[in-house]
Every structure is written in structure tokens, then in C-alpha cells.
Amino acid sequence: MCGIVGYIGQKEAQPILLSGLKRLEYRGYDSAGIVTIDEKSKATLLRAKGKVAELEGKALTHTTKDSVGIGHTRWATHGEPSKRNAHPHHVGDIYLVHNGIIENYQDLKHMLTKHDYIFKSDTDSEVLTALIDFLYKDADSLLEAVSGALKMVVGAYGIALFSVQNPDEIIIARKGSPLIVGVAEGEVFIASDASALVGHTDQVIYLHDGEIGVCTREGIQLYDIETQAVEAEVEKLELDLQAIQKEGFDHFLLKEIYEQPKSLRSTLSGRINLKTNSVKLGGLNMTDDELREVRNIMVIGCGTAFYAGMMAGYFIEQFTDDVAVRSEIASELRYRSFHVPDNTVALIVSQSGETADTLACLQELKRRGVKCLGVVNAVGSTIAREVDGGVYVHVGAEISVASTKAFTSQVAAITMFGLMVAQAKGASSKELNTYIKELDLLPGEIESVLENSTGEIKKLAKKYAKYEHALYVGRDTQYPIALEGALKLKEVSYIQAEGYAAGELKHGPIALIDDRFFEVCYLQDNWLYEKSQSNLIEMNARGAHAIVITDTDKRVAAEAVVRVKTKLELLTPLVFNVASQLLAYYIAIARGNDVDQPRNLAKSVTVE
Ligand code: AGP
């Protein structure tokens, strides 16, 4: 998704803007730009299609000492990736960068064209720039012009802008697209993501929807959309440099796969108690009586977050008697006519806490009066602010576009919520003991997969990287892992991969199996072992190139077998999933892909 940076202070703005954009690269983009302005209102605008490195090259030959500027990485929505469509946009006196979508930009463009505005790009952002310039001509201040423009806009925005008439002021505003301000002595840092502020300051202000900020060297003054002053709440940024550096790993993706034991321990810390065999989640804002009354849990998310909800839903229905769990794809739910039964709690699952479809579902469910709890990683994110309570997964910054450590911790967090409900309903500690014990064991079990299976999987990856199609199959609690494993592969390797319920093979997918495909078959040595084995036999009989991921010692007939030793019985799929993550990573490497910033993808999809 697009990234925004801004700076006003005493230092040279260009290096600050460029390093900030580098920090935001992980979010995915296809062009970038910066503009700085000096005290005589001379602006230096640099834009480039492609990576920030292109921009850095331009800056070498257009270096300025300016101490005010804004920058942007663009993930194309309106208009192809190009320098012409790259931000910052410049119209009249105004330079502007924008995250989000202006839905009524055509009408606004039509009106502005009648006022002799000529547009150079295909973007909605340029129209917003022109609108502010147009209103500024008759306004008493830029703040007033921005307020007037934003009241005419339909859609989502995070913007940063300045006018050449006042080079000592940057104006920002947000509605649906995050903006964070870092404040320090004599300087203000602006970003759409906290990672761009790390190392500059840990005093931050999260803008709320509908707020406008006027940033000067003296600090920031917040206003509401009617330009009434609003109190700014300064918070401490919890992120540190270590969290956003590779620390010796070749890629963030591999670093984050290896971080899972540590990040999972952080998710579990202080929340599971082996002595009392209990779980305690603070922050739910639910009484025991309210937990006891829960009969339905809706788990809502996109992509990996959706699969995490599905995975945990299987576990919760195993240890509760009267709780139905349904996981929902947010982009489907937001437009579907759906019913919410009484005694429902909605879990809003999102690593970034900014995913537009997920946020839209949250807002609809709150409108209906449904209790909404967040399962979020990004502290202070929009979803985290709008839920009624919830659980932070505390995995630290997840930089790689492909989500790994967040998935494992989301499953753990949702499962812990289910255990809280079961406890409130009087489930005996004996019944819950296995899940609590296995949650506690899980970090260590992941450690042993990382230690014992990585080398073998790396070798396998070289062999299977040549395929263009893959089928991931699993039964019961291994089915969500098949879906997630397939997503990981397709995201980073660009191999067309599909996750399927193993029992469904004979209802169609088995027609696909030939030498174009390889298969990943999850074979847990549990009550469904024989059923899963039959599916494997069916596939082998048709010439499958199957990789079996299993915890069994039994003989397994397959082209490749990855044996994952584990003490777990119930949460085993989460250990299998680490093997899938490694397989996806090494296949993508073998195919020479940019594993941390896969093509066309964004870390946080803040537009629908
Ligand atoms: C997962 O690897 C993908 N990057 C994507 O499916 C992601 O899970 C999805 O966009 C949801 O993101 P969120 O958790 O930040 O809401």
C-alpha cells in the first residue's frame, strides 16, 4: 500500500524523506517521489517509477539543503505506475501526497476543468490537489481550504501537503488511511507507518479519522474537519530499530519465520498459567457473565488473517460444547446480507489493523451493536482503536508482505479467547489442559522444526521450484493450513497454488493431477490418519509429485516426506505450517523472486 513521509525542522529534509520511504518499501509500491521547499519557496520535486533507489539516484544530482518536505511511495490504483502518476502532485501553489481513494474524483475533476484546471495525470490525488488549490484562492488559510476540500470529498485519504505561499507549514489529514506524527524539539516527522519514525523520536501522535494537523517547527496543532482545535494525545512509540532490521537474515521473511518461537512466547506471555491451568486475557472488556453467554463467534479477516480465524475456529469448537465459530472473508461479508445471531462476539483479525475490508466489517458490526474484539498486531492502528476490546498479538513489526509470525500468534490469541469463553462456561481445567499445555509447548516445537527440517526443505525447494502449479491438501485442522500454505507459496513464488480439503479431491481437483503439478499433503498421525492416507494413495495413483508433511514414523509412500517430530497432538498443524512457510520461502528464493516485496502485493491493503 502507498506510504507517506514528511519532515519540517532544522535538518536537511531529503535524506530524512528518502530513508523514511526506504522504511516503507515493505508495504509494496511501484513508484515514488519527494518534494522539498526552501525558505524562498523554491520547490524541488523528484519522482520516479520503480524503487526508491531510482529516486535516490535523482536526489544525488538534485541535492538541496531544504528542511521541509513530503514524500510518497505509490501502489497504483488510478492510472498505471509511472512518473506522471507518481506523487507528490503539484497543482498551482500546492504540493500533495495521498494514500486512499477519492471516490467522487471524476465529478470534482469535471468541476475543476470548468475552472480551467488541466490535469497531467490519471490520478484522483491530483484532483484533490487541484481542489485544495482552487479553494485556497478564496480561503483565509490553507487549513480552511483543506477543510473545505475534504468536506467535498467522498472516500478515504491520508494526505500531507504544503503551499509555496507558506514553506514553514505542512498540513496533514486522515480519514481511513493512517497517519502518525513524531514530535521532537524543533521538528516534526510525518509517516503513514510507525517504522518510518523509528530512530527519530518515540513521541508520537496517531491522527484520528476526520482530523487535520498543521505541522510547524514548533509542533503540531490538531483540528477537526470544522477547523475547531482538538487536543493532541502524545503516546510512546513501542517500535525499535532492531524490529525493522534483518539482523543477519537474507530477508525479513526468513527472519520472521525464525522469530516465531520468540514472537509466540510474547503473545502467550502472562496469558497462560500452567499452574492453575488457565488463560487470562486482559483488555477484552468483557465480564465473566458476558463470556459465559457467548454462543457464536464470528472471526473476520482477509487472507492469512482469515485463515488464522478458520484454524482457531476448529480448535474452539473442539473444546466448547455450545459455541459455534464461523470465519468470514471480510471483503465478502461487508457486502453480503448476513444475520448475526444473539450472543455473538465478533473477532476482528488484522496484523496491520488497517485493512479496509476488515475495518468496514468492524464498522458495520458495531453499527449493529455487536461486541467486536480486535486480534491485532499494530498498536494504535485504526482497527485497534475502533474495537470494543481485544488482544494485541505483540509479535513486533512484521515487515515481510507475506505474513508468518502474525499468523501463528493470531491462531494462539483466538484460541486463548475461546479458552476464556470455555473457562467462563465452567469447562474443567482437565478438559482445557491439553490446549493450554500445547500452547505452552508450541514455541519449542516450532524451534525444533526450524532446527531439524530447514535443511531438508531447502533441498526440496530447489527440486519443486520448477513447477508452475501446486495443490495443498489437508483434512480437518489441516485444511486451514493447506489454504494458508498455498497462499504463502503463491504470494512469494508466483506458482499457482490452491489449498483444498483433502476429502474434496475426488469431487473435482483430482482431475488436475499430472506432471504440471506438485502436491503438498498434510498427514497428521491422528484419528484421521487413514483417511488422509487414502487421499495420498488416490493422488499417487495418478502420478502425483507429492511432498508429505507428517509427524508419523510410519512408512509413507510419496515422492518426498518431511517428517516433523513433535510432542503435540492437537496443535500439530501449526508446526506443519512452519514447514510450509519454509518451503514457500526457499522455492521463491530458487525462483529469484523479491520475497519481501512480492510483485503487486502490499503489506497492508488500506483500499478496497
Ligand atoms: C498474507 O501473507 C498476506 N500478506 C495477506 O493475505 C494479509 O494477510 C491480508 O492482507 C490481511 O492483512 P492484515 O492482517 O494486516 O489485515
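^ 2-deoxy-2-amino glucitol-6-phosphate complex. Residues 182 and 462 are 45 Å apart (CA to CA). The pocket of 2-deoxy-2-amino glucitol-6-phosphate is lined by residues 301-305, 350-352, 355, 358, 401-403, 491, 604-605 (CB under 6 Å).
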